[in-house]
Design a protein that fits this description.
Helix content is 38%, strand content 16%. By secondary structure, it is α/β, with parallel strands linked by helices. The N and C termini lie far apart (49 Å).
Length: 307
């Protein structure tokens, strides 16, 4: 099986590239080779490669910068997936696409279901929602997988930023009133393998929209506290963490206070369930060098006041 993977140089794309090798030939395409902002290039690549499956891990994820680059974010996150869906439909092959908890405004008291009303608070969320709608309009065999608070051992994300800042600072202020589920890229990759194998063996559930995050919930402060505990266990320098409200850390883009996603439909329809976020985080940390210090900037959540 030939799998076209877009965004292969991003943190999720890099992990998927490793994991997908177990089920087929991965045609990895970073942005330099397949730019989701370039519709003509998307069509040309798909028609030349003629993959058996397309996985779109590419996206514009700079949430705050999207407020001033809304047009670019729209082309990449909204128009690009629509073109991929059209080309996948023309070939008669499935498309797996990743979306985000940021399609919601965070006002619901409990976890969001797939059918709950969407109301993104920022340009990034609006562009991702439009991408979902573009795929749904085309139809065909597709999976839209909403995930949240993604991190990995590489790239720019909250985990690596915390590992650096906690060792550099004496004190660190982190937002404590935004709730969600930190989700490791390798957990996502393993789940994708399960989905692909279900499709290959004829045991697939219905195509469509699903939530896919780690089990459990925490705040950004809780996430940072778990990382801090790891540093302390390793007897490494660790700053004192101070919980703060979102109002103490204004950003160009508003974030939802509640990013909890109910993932029961994916488990019921496809038999896929990600592990608890605490277990996944520990597994990720165990794979890092003991004294790993990152120079990465904060990831898309960016819930840390490090000034």
């Amino acid at each position: 099986m030939r799998i076209l993977l877009t965004g292969s140089s991003g943190q999720l794309g890099l992990t998927l590239q490793q994991g997908l090798a177990a089920v087929g030939e991965v045609l990895a395409r970073p942005r330099a080779q397949l730019d989701l902002a370039d519709s003509a290039q998307i069509r040309r690549q798909v028609r030349e490669l003629r993959p058996d499956l397309i996985i779109n891990a590419g996206a514009y994820t700079a949430v705050d910068r999207a407020e001033s680059e809304a047009e670019l974010a729209w082309r990449i996150n909204a128009e690009g997936p629509g073109v991929l869906a059209e080309e996948a439909g023309a070939l008669g092959v499935p498309l797996i696409h990743f979306s985000t908890d940021y399609v919601f405004d965070g006002s619901k008291p409990g976890a969001y279901l797939e059918d709950d009303p969407t109301a993104p608070l920022n340009a990034y969320g609006r562009s991702k929602l439009a991408g979902e709608q573009a795929l749904s309009a085309v139809g065909g065999q597709h999976l839209i997988l909403r995930t949240s608070w993604v991190y990995s051992q590489h790239g720019s994300n909250f985990l690596l930023s915390m590992l650096r800042l906690l060792q550099e600072r004496d004190e660190l202020r982190v937002v404590a009133d935004q709730i969600g589920a930190p989700t490791w890229t390798w957990s996502i990759a393993k789940a994708c393998l399960q989905l692909i194998r279900a499709w290959q063996t004829g045991t697939a559930g219905p195509w469509g929209l699903y939530h896919m995050t780690a089990q459990g919930e925490t705040s950004w402060y809780g996430f940072a506290s778990a990382i801090a505990q790891h540093l302390k266990t390793q007897r490494l320098p660790c700053a004192r963490l101070i919980p703060i409200p979102s109002s103490d850390y204004p950003t160009p883009a508003r974030r939802p206070a509640n990013s909890r996603l109910d993932c029961s439909r994916l488990c019921q329809d496809w038999g896929v369930e990600l592990p608890p976020w605490q277990l996944a985080l520990q597994a990720c940390l165990d794979q890092l060098p003991p004294a790993r210090v990152s120079t990465a900037a904060p990831g898309i959540g960016d819930p840390c006041n490090n000034s």
